[in-house]
Amino acid sequence: MTTVAKPATDEKRASRARQSARLAEWLVLYLLSILGAILISALLVTATGGDWQSVVGALFDGSVRNPGRWGATLGAAAPLLLVALGTVISARAGLVNIGQEGQLAIGAAFATYFGFLIGGPGSVNIVVLLAFGAVGGALWAGVAALLRFWRGVPEVLSTLLLVAVAGQAVAYGLRWQGLLLAPAADRGNRNQVSEQLGTDRRLPVQTIFGNSYPISVYLSVLAAVIVAFLLARSIWGFRLKMLGRNPRAAQHSGVSQNRYGSAALMLGGAFAGLAGAAMLAGGGFAFGNFQLVPGFSANIGWTGLLVALVARERALICIPVALVFAALRTGSGFVSSTGVEGRITDVIQGLLVLALLVPPAVMFVRDRRRARAATTART
Predict the structure, then answer these.
(1) pTM of the entire predicted model
(2) What are the structural domain ranges in the chain?
(3) Residue 275 pLDDT > 70, yes or no?
(4) DSSP letters for 196-248
């Protein structure tokens, strides 16, 4: 028995050693990529006549260190995380949804319209807002699903084009008082705004050490845990993975591409729409004053897509990545005080995205070369 057990033990040790070595490679690549992005960012700031140390300090002041700032960062991270979770679900089914910006805007419009139409007590109305926000985003993504699975239109094209349509649809709604436009007495000097949510129809706010943030922060983290569990441990998640890896094999195994693909795309839209409703009801965190305005989405949809890409479409990894992107967002307003254009944070954000996408590409090329070398050695 010992002669049989020993080779098995040696094989386990060798497997663990290979896994440890591969993990070390990943960590080194990520560290070098991030350091490279930081170095290039510092050089760009210096080239534009600024002091990179002052810029970094301003980013930390605006996102964490100054009173109340980390609360604002948490408030900004919540919708980013929700959008990213929807993107992860769509990607797991092999679908490329890049229309989150439009789905978020439509979700916010649905939340505004049906929230005031249905009314009800404050707590009930908050649920109505969030529910119809998710419904609006799901229906808007459903248009792309219909085009994809019944007419063969690539979802990467339809979801992108629907962003422009969503912007025009919301702008049209804000022109008519029967749809989204507030009564003249409530608009003040602004021409195109919706009615403002009452204080009892807003998401509750948590205050810790002088930092305030809406409870959507907790809801988004809970959603991340649930999505991660369902994708990893449920039959539904396994079927989505089958569909994403090999649609033909999934179809032969009884996984309907139309049903599961449409559901995944609509769930992605539902999370984006929910993010829009949460921004509306959470307000005060760089997302307007509890009312729908032109440009309400404020690039949250696009940034949430980047969060999912950087997290490599892993639900739990989206949590810290969303925090990083939210910190860049809330800290960017303080950068102008250093004499550097505040848009430099967009450049830093882009460099960080590229840095975090480099290691997977490097490892893919390396694995292919090793596989070819092993095949050549056997032949």
Answers:
(1) 0.87
(2) 72-204+212-319
(3) yes
(4) PPPGGGS--EEEETTEEEETHHHHHHHHHHHHHHHHHHSHHHHHHHHHHH-HH
